[in-house]
Design brief:
Blueprint (H helix, E strand, L loop, with lengths): L4 H18 L3 H15 L9 H9 L4 H10 L4 E2 H7 L5 H13 L3 E6 L5 E6 L1 H5 L1 H23 L9
Antiparallel strand pairs: 1-3, 2-3
Length: about 160
């Protein structure tokens, strides 16, 4: 069976890669895997437009609320305060969302090395730029909730079944 040059180089690379893994500890192996995954991200994930870019940063169920709660609580909250305020979010999802906001540089995380550990979150300058937009969304939501209440409580509203 003849093997092409490409296949031979691929096999050598693969064997070399696994030989390299055999000499590394678990932490370094995980770092190599993570770096390979990051390198595989294609440019096709680039935002289609600026609206797409913005919604990738603040879209989702919790990001806008986290930014708003930070703003309304004097720009400083600890992890436990988020847990008390946002009762409908799991600890895993809260941690993940906070990390994403930190990666997008919308919030900053300050760790105090003390016992028990203390971590505080605050809005960055970029995050503060979003507050007027989120406030506008909040006002719109308040108006829509009020309209919905009026519609449901008005005497002429009838339930029609199609």
């Amino acid at each position: 069976m003849l093997i092409s040059t490409e296949q031979r180089y691929f096999r050598q690379y693969t064997l070399h890669k696994y030989a390299l893994f055999s000499t590394l500890d678990t932490k370094n192996i995980l770092l190599l895997i993570i770096n390979q995954i990051k390198m595989k991200k294609s440019p096709t994930n680039a935002p289609a437009c600026s609206v797409d870019y913005a919604f990738r940063r603040i879209g989702g169920k919790y990001k806008g609320r986290i930014i708003w709660y930070l703003h309304s609580h004097d720009n400083l909250l600890r992890y436990g305060a988020f847990r008390r305020i946002m009762k409908d979010i799991t600890p895993k999802m809260l941690t993940q969302t906070l990390r994403e906001l930190e990666d997008d540089q919308l919030i900053s995380r300050t760790v105090y090395h003390e016992v028990p550990p203390k971590v505080e979150y605050s809005l960055t300058a970029t995050g503060k730029e979003l507050v007027p937009l989120i406030d506008h969304l909040r006002q719109w939501g308040d108006r829509q909730i009020e309209r919905e209440k009026q519609r449901l409580t008005s005497p002429d509203s009838t339930l029609t079944i199609p």
